[in-house]
Amino acid sequence: MNLGLAGAGRMGRNHLRAIAGSSTVRVTAIAEPMEPARASLPRLDAKLYPDLDSMLAGGGFDAVLVCVPSDFHLDTIKRLVSAGMPILCEKPVGVTAVEAREASELTKRAGLPFQIGFWRRFVPSLKKLRARIAAGELGEIYLVACYQWDEKPPSSYFRTHSGGIFIDMGVHEFDQTRWLTGQEFGRISSLFCGVAAEPWPGDPESAQALAELSGGTTALVSLGRRFPLGDVCKVEVFGTRDADECKFLWPPTADESFFGALRLQAESFARHVHGELREGAGGDDAAAALEAAERAAAQAVTE
Length: 303
Hints:
This protein is an alpha/beta fold. The protein is built from 10 helices and 12 strands. Strand 5, helix 5 (97-110) and strand 6 (114-116) form a beta-alpha-beta unit.
């Protein structure tokens, strides 16, 4: 399947690297408004365009991967729906649950495939953990603890468009928790950490949330933007029969896990576009994760 890429920033380039290893999906067109970003792209067998409309006019692709800044997601999706394009959108799908729900409804009414970039759902070790939970191997689940700690904070430009740490980072953990357990978020208590080398107004470098899930399980979400080992993620699950720890993004295999999951995600989206059931997250999942993230952000306080 041929993909158009909307946005060739950090995540757009990550997807380009991942998809380069696929034998079933390729990027044939790229829309990126920033000339320096276009000029710094590696040599690719893809046409470059300065904006989405010119890329759509040029054609030559079957669907579009959206990697523009989060606060541009909804407007981009609206344009793609009007063009009749299937969409694989990077998380979080806007910066509010309202935006995610609108995007979901637009694609449903248009009858277009719509998948969200919650790549954790394609990590083999996480899929195995989910199967163990579903099979009852761990017993009844007391606690699911999800950790995401980055090596360093993102750029100032990114932080002005991301929606903050719970919206940008936390939606992964909120979606991951729902997917692993099959439970929904209830009460959420959260806390922003006041310790930061470079304080950023309204967007602390660490935040934690503790939540009650619909099946009685407790969920912990731990987020941070300074970790000496690099970007890491792990899940701990404690049950009445057993416990499990899954360091699914951890040195020295972090890149292999991340880019492998992105490739599998794109390939699953291609199958969905060609008529198979969607394996990944949908618009309703994005809205649910954002709703939990919004509640966590609103409840948090800085100490």
